[in-house]
Design goal:
Layout lengths: L1 H50 L14 H20 L2 E3 L3 H20 L5 H24 L3 H38 L3 H10 L10 H10 L11 H32 L6 H4 L8 H21 L3 H17 L10 H20 L6 H26 L10 H8 L14 H28 L5 H8 L6 H16 L9 H13 L1 H6 L4 H14 L9 H14 L5 E3 L4 H48 L3 H18 L2
Antiparallel strand pairs: 1-2
Helix pairs in contact: 1-2, 1-4, 1-5, 1-17, 1-21, 2-4, 2-22, 3-4, 3-15, 4-21, 5-8, 5-10, 5-17, 5-18, 8-10, 8-11, 8-20, 8-21, 10-12, 11-20, 13-14, 13-15, 20-21, 22-23
Length: about 625
């Protein structure tokens, strides 16, 4: 009887143990499923923000606010799940704290100075910076392994390749076509082209007309960005990253050819993974680097040239990328030869000439003028600055007499932060830089880290999100741009060929930091720290270059997660009231303004000048209401 009871208890204990294991596995699977879907959404937002300049909000001064709502929603869903079922306790580190303090100081400065400038621009800019911080936090929570980090980098290199093809298409075909169409049109046709470019009709002889026609004479591409320098600022870090990956993979291949597979150290094997398709990976990376490099040359951005050269020089000097390989002389010679050939092609097709060197001194003198005016703004209020989003308005007050235009930023991210957010925020940025350098220097074994978290690693959500985010601009293509569907498909094919490297390769954090350094160097002489399409690259590299958070079992305290959840819900409500709702209202004013403008043009053509002036006045009032 006792033996029977003992066997029964053992059997019940075994069943209970299996049930607990099954419940634990189901919980882990559900947690991974939620994280994977959110990772796909985050990837889609990053890709779409880069490729779509005005993210589906057709309103003035929208400043790309819709991605901020996406980051808020992703963060709330993640916190809600952690509050209800979460078992992952994440250690954030000093860098996240530095970012939080910087954003608090930046927001405080903007709120204090809001009514001394343009309140709508200030509010939008504040939310834009909060969105950058949310993006950093979300990426830190969702990217759990080196595979997912490499997948994101592969996707962004593909996005840069697509933008490069788009830029080449503009430089060699669409810009010459538009220029010929403009000069062959009458005055009404030219003003229609002004409106198509997003401008109000520009009258002959005005400075705006002169600047528009001067820019029309150039073949410098812009891609999906508003300015050529913005495109160059986006391409620079991904070109550096692609070159670093290529050098690492080529170095691995050279070691195999020289010593054989069995004599290659394990550390070098990590550079490309144990795959038979490594030569295809090298070919795709090399092609991506060639496309991005060629487009970068076409932009004529001297700052981007210098930033890329310094970053690549640093990369070669350190002799480390993708696992610590020393680069072979042959691969370095290939890169040098490719650069010379691309420069020759650009010169031979009249896309680059001696004016690139001659105008660099003039361009630098303009920047000196901008910086002097920015220092005047800083001295007017060193503590708080002029408020985020108000630089252009204040610049007109401190503009030097010889300055020809009123710029929206000082073309230097340090002066921009200092002038708009004050000394305290700039000191917080300095602290952020110091904590990032210290935290990112932590020695981490990539293989060991991946091995600990392979059970939660899944790169398919990254690919799915990239497909969704990349498809958004496809639906916005005009009939003249349908050609870009082919490069879109080629990018998908190229990312697929990089999958062996994503699965079994290695990506050195030092290479990510060098690419980030190239991005930072570029922003020392161009604007872009607050432009979403440019800024997301820096924040993404900042998040990926840090050691991955330590994920350990143990329920996140409900009190802590609950407070964070309430704060996130408050942010969503505040964002809707102060950010989105005014933009949607402005959409109605813009629609009325466009109707009045169309009626005015028709009456002007019919010779009814008085009625046309009345409708133009209505349009002007509606346009002003839309900017409030």
């Amino acid at each position: 009887m006792n033996r029977s009871g003992t066997r029964s208890r053992r059997k019940s204990a075994a069943i209970e143990k299996r049930l607990r294991k099954s419940r634990r596995q189901s919980s882990d699977q559900a947690r991974r499923s939620v994280r994977c879907w959110l990772l796909a959404a985050a990837t889609a937002v990053v890709v779409a923000t880069t490729l779509v300049t005005s993210f589906a909000i057709p309103s003035r001064e929208s400043n790309d606010l819709l991605p901020i709502l996406c980051w808020l929603v992703i963060g709330v869903i993640w916190l809600l799940y952690q509050w209800l079922h979460g078992k992952d306790h994440v250690t954030f580190g000093a860098t996240s704290l530095a970012i939080l303090i910087m954003l608090v100081l930046h927001t405080t400065s903007g709120l204090v100075k809001m009514w001394s400038g343009n309140p709508r621009a200030t509010i939008n800019s504040i939310w834009q910076w909060i969105g950058f911080g949310l993006m950093f936090w979300v990426i830190r929570q969702l990217v759990r392994s080196g595979r997912e980090s490499r997948a994101l980098c592969a996707v962004m290199i593909g996005v840069a390749g697509f933008s490069a093809i788009h830029g080449g298409y503009e430089s060699f075909y669409s810009l010459p076509r538009d220029r010929a169409s403009y000069w062959s049109s009458d005055e009404a046709g030219k003003q229609a082209l002004h409106r198509y470019a997003g401008l109000e009709p520009l009258l002959a002889g005005t400075p705006g007309r002169f600047h528009f026609e001067t820019r029309l004479q150039t073949n410098e591409p812009t891609g999906s960005f508003a300015l050529t320098n913005s495109l160059a600022a986006f391409l620079t870090p991904w070109l550096v990253l692609a070159i670093g990956i290529f050098l690492g993979l080529a170095g691995r291949t050279s070691e195999i050819e020289k010593h054989g597979e069995d004599h290659v150290p394990e550390r070098s094997r990590a550079a490309s993974g144990e795959t038979s398709g490594q030569f295809e990976v090298i070919l795709v990376i090399a092609l991506a680097a060639l496309l991005i490099g060629m487009c970068l040359i076409l932009t004529k951005s001297r700052t981007a040239y210098v930033a890329t050269a310094l970053a690549v020089t640093w990369l070669v000097w350190r002799g480390q990328a993708g696992g610590g390989l020393r680069f072979s002389r042959r691969s370095l010679a290939w890169i040098l030869g490719a650069v010379l050939i691309m420069i020759g092609v650009a010169i031979g097709t009249n896309r680059v000439d001696a004016t690139v060197v001659h105008e660099s001194f003039k361009s630098f003198s303009y920047r000196i003028q901008y910086w002097q005016s920015a220092l005047g703004i800083i001295l007017a209020d060193p503590l708080l600055g002029c408020g985020s989003g108000n630089f252009q308005q204040y610049f007109s007050q401190f503009k030097l007499p010889e300055t020809s235009e009123t710029v929206a930023d000082p073309h230097n991210f340090i002066l921009e932060i200092w002038a708009t957010a004050g000394t305290l925020t700039l000191l917080a940025v300095g602290w952020l830089t110091w904590t990032f350098c210290r935290e990112s220097s932590t020695v981490e074994n990539p293989r060991q880290a991946d091995g600990q978290q392979d059970r939660t690693s899944n790169v398919m959500p990254v690919y799915l999100g990239a497909m969704v985010g990349g498809s958004i601009p496809v639906f916005l293509l005009t009939s003249h741009e349908l050609f870009l569907l082919l490069p879109f498909l080629l990018v998908i094919f190229g990312i697929n060929k990089l999958h062996p490297w994503v699965q079994a390769g290695s990506l050195s954090p030092r290479l990510l930091k060098i690419a980030l350094a190239g991005w930072v160097i570029n922003l020392l002489a161009v604007g872009g720290i607050g432009i979403p399409g440019v800024a997301v690259t820096g924040w993404l590299l900042l998040a990926l270059a840090l050691p991955r958070p330590v994920i350990r079992e143990g329920a996140l305290k409900r009190r802590t997660s609950g407070l964070l959840l309430v704060a996130s819900l408050f942010l969503i409500v505040a964002f809707y009231i102060t950010g989105l709702l005014p933009i949607f209202r402005a959409g109605g004013h813009l629609a009325a303004a466009n109707v009045a403008d169309g009626q005015a043009q028709q009456q002007w053509i019919q010779g009814k000048s008085e009625q046309a002036e009345q409708h133009w006045e209505k349009a002007r009032i509606s346009w002003l209401a839309a900017t409030r």
